[in-house]
Amino acid sequence: SSYGSSSYIVNSYNIGDLKNNVDSTGADLGGIIGDVFSNATSGSIHNYIINSYNLGNIDGTTNNSVSGIFNDYTANDVVNELYINNVYNAGSLIGTTKAGLGNLSSTANYIINNAYYENSVSASNVAGVEGTAMALTAMKSQTFVDTLNKNIANINLEQIDSSLKDYALIPWKLGDDNLPTFAETIPDLSGKGNDGLNFGATLSQEGITTGKDHYINCGLAGYDFKNSASLIVKVKISEFTTNDHQRMFNNYGPPGLLSGIGIAYAQDNSPNVSFRGVDSNSWNHLGVSNKLIINNWYTIVGTYDGNIERIYVNGVTFGEKTYKDNIKVSNYPFLLGRSLMSDMDYTLATYAEALIFDRALTEEEVKNNYAGEINPVNKDNLLLWYKFKC
Question: C-alpha angle 105/5/25, rounded to 5°?
Answer without folding.
Answer: 50
